[in-house]
Design brief:
Shape: globular
Largest sheet: 6 strands, mixed
Radius of gyration: 25 Å
Distance between the termini: 42 Å
Strand content: 15-25%
Number of helices: 15
Structural class: alpha/beta
Number of strands: 12
Order of helices and strands: HHHHHHHHEHEHEEEHEEHEHEEEEHH
Length: about 525
């Protein structure tokens, strides 16, 4: 009976374990068991299609439970993201089963599995449907005290940790099922427990303690509590503009060095050739004259117009102490929402179909940006919304001299769901990787200051109009991860390439015979 229902039991149990481990309400250690039911099923040598079917069902459960909130903004788009991501994960597992059946991986089969999964997570950073939100290492984002060692490995060290423990515990279970109660079993149990415990012990001893502030910047964070779906309502835009001006006027003082306003806080598009024509920007530039030690960072949608060619950007405007306005254009755009995937094919086709009425969405920037805040040459790195999901991208800001990082975001699209909570949790990982403070500034919950050990302070609530005042310490340290990047993925890709080459080499030899 159990054998007959093994496919269904494997899919449901694996999907359930993934679901109850994931932030924001999940318990992360359950992920150490989540892949075991699928891998156990593969040990029974099922057909490839059955492997795909079972793993797809499991990953659909996980993806739906973890990311259903995307459908609050776009039902069809969110459903497609869930389906595509789950399908790709299932294909990774099916490819592993194919390699296992070919017997070229031999006793190293689970090294192949680990390498394949990590290579898939590498693909999620680089292809046109990039969605690294469900990187396995992100599961510990609500448990920063367990993963302080991310400053050495980055989040993919966490993915490797999860994969290794799943494999070791699977081997323990297989020996118990086969009733092999011998020294080998006890050695495996010891190894599995040690692999769980050792990184946690390292984390406890490497956690950074709060230090006395020496070099710091006095920041004023604005959470204006606006509704992004009303961006095209001119009357509503006027209300928000006035609210922003009023909130800054009431809270700024001579000690304020940096005022930060969230992504898309100014709802009306701004022409980059005449930014001062916008009421809010012009007010902040004027205000800067009254507070010469204060700089302003403002989230807005900007555009450039040359002849009939209009380019729209998701931008951060920076008004420095010299009164000069600089602009950063978001580089990592959200596929489907801000940018068409496979645009070299899709955009020409859509232009041919729709003509001049076709909207190309946003144009991506081509560089990262650090802004100088004060006379001490303190620098802040700026990231916008989805860019925080890319660890190496954020760490490049630190590499370029950023002393702390501001993440301006517009999380109101998802309403009061897990989406904005998970976004904050991912920023906690970025803080550990870079060992610097991160200021997450949202249009409505959650705005927070995240310390270098990944702990949030001064956290706001959802649907709250408020401000945060804080003295933010400047970071001058570059971690191992900042310097060396995602070296784990590089190694995994090389191993994956080796196994794939061996597979095709084996096929050629079989044909010759």
């Amino acid at each position: 009976m159990i054998k007959k229902n093994l496919p269904l039991l494997s899919a449901i149990s694996s999907g359930f374990l993934f679901a109850i481990s994931w932030p924001s309400a999940g318990f992360a250690p359950f992920l150490f068991l989540a892949l075991i039911p699928i891998l156990f099923y593969i040990e029974s040598s099922p057909k490839l299609f059955d492997v795909f079917r079972v793993s797809l069902f499991a990953f659909l459960i996980w993806n739906t439970s973890a990311a259903w909130w995307m459908c609050k903004f776009d039902l069809l788009g969110g459903a497609l993201v869930i389906l595509i991501n789950a399908t790709c994960m299932a294909l990774v597992v099916t490819l592993f089963s194919l390699l296992k059946k070919s017997k070229i991986v031999g006793s190293q089969k689970y090294i192949a599995f680990i390498a394949l999964w990590l290579s898939w997570e590498w693909c999620q950073l680089h292809w046109d449907l990039s969605w690294p939100w469900l990187t396995l290492g992100n599961v510990f984002s609500n448990f920063p005290s367990l993963v302080q060692w991310y400053e050495f490995t980055g989040v993919f060290g966490g993915s490797l940790w999860v994969l290794i423990i799943n494999v070791l515990l699977l081997k323990v279970i297989l020996k118990i099922v086969e009733k092999q109660y011998n020294r080998s079993l006890y050695a495996l149990i010891t190894l599995a427990l040690s692999t769980i415990a050792l990184p946690i012990i390292i984390s406890i001893f490497t956690i950074e303690k709060e230090k006395t502030l020496n070099n710091f910047v006095n920041c004023l964070i604005i959470q204006q509590n606006s509704t992004p779906s009303k961006a095209k309502d001119k009357e509503y835009s006027k209300i928000i503009d006035q609210r922003l001006i009023s909130m800054v006027n009431q809270n700024i003082d001579s000690n304020t060095q940096l005022v930060i306003v969230p992504e898309s806080a100014i709802l009306q598009e701004i022409n980059e050739d005449s930014v001062v024509s916008n009421k809010v920007v012009n007010h902040f530039i004027t205000l800067q004259n009254h507070y010469p030690k204060t700089s302003f960072m403002i989230g807005a949608t900007t555009f450039t117009q040359k002849d009939d060619c209009k380019k729209t950007y998701n931008s951060a405007l920076f008004v420095g102490q010299n009164g000069k306005t600089e602009i950063y254009h978001k580089s990592k755009l959200v596929p489907g929402i801000e940018e068409y995937p496979f645009k070299k094919v899709i955009v020409p086709v859509m232009k041919w179909i729709k003509g001049n009425s076709f909207d190309e969405k946003f144009t991506s920037g081509n560089h990262q940006q650090c802004f100088t805040v004060d006379s001490k040459q303190s620098k802040i790195g700026v990231a916008i919304c989805y860019e925080s999901v890319y660890g190496a991208y954020i760490s490049q800001l630190t590499q370029n001299g950023a002393n702390f990082i501001t993440l301006i975001t517009n999380d109101g699209w998802w309403d009061n769901t897990d989406g904005y909570k998970q976004h904050l949790a991912i920023s906690q990982i970025r803080a550990i990787e870079n060992r610097c403070n991160i200021l997450q500034v949202a249009n409505t919950g959650i705005s927070a200051i995240i310390t270098p050990n990944g702990i949030t302070t001064y956290q706001t609530e959802w649907n709250e109009q408020t401000v945060i005042r804080s003295s933010v310490k400047m970071n001058t340290k570059k971690t191992f991860y900042v310097i060396h990047g995602d070296f784990i993925l590089t190694i995994a890709n090389l191993i994956t390439l080796l196994f794939i080459m061996l597979y095709f080499s084996n096929l050629l030899q079989q044909k010759k015979r």
